[in-house]
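Take a look at the protein record below with the fold in mind.
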Amino acid sequence: MKIEDEIKGEDFVSVQHKLRVNLNFTYLWTQDQLQHFFAGYGLTAQQYNVLRILRGAFPHSYTTSQILDRMLEKNAGVSRMVDRLLKKELVIKEVSAKDKRLVDVTISYKGHALCERMDEEMKQVDSIYNNLDLEEMDQLNHLLDKLRG
């Protein structure tokens, strides 16, 4: 559906204005779809991102600052997010042996198992992109990379 129809016919002052509105609207629409999926697991998209980062490091750990560096959405509240995941027993948190001021975070076996269960269903979530064929998806990925320069 065209962006003009989605937002009920706003006039755009330039192509750049339309692009800005279209990108923002599409991002928020995509996030809404994803948040609905993650809520079914009692997670947020950001918490899932932390679990995926930690799963990629497994069996090793990352400090909260290393997690932040790798996050899609830079969130200063990583420590609180880790604490929420800890309460759900999805991560393990320990004082760093190398630097007592730091905390090492590792995905737990329960967190790992949850991610694996979610992987299969994530394919269904990715169906929101099915209005594009594979070539169009590649082209859009290329254009978005180019946009960020």
The domain at 42-148 is CATH 1.10.10.10 (Arc Repressor Mutant, subunit A). The chain has two domains: 1-39, 42-148.
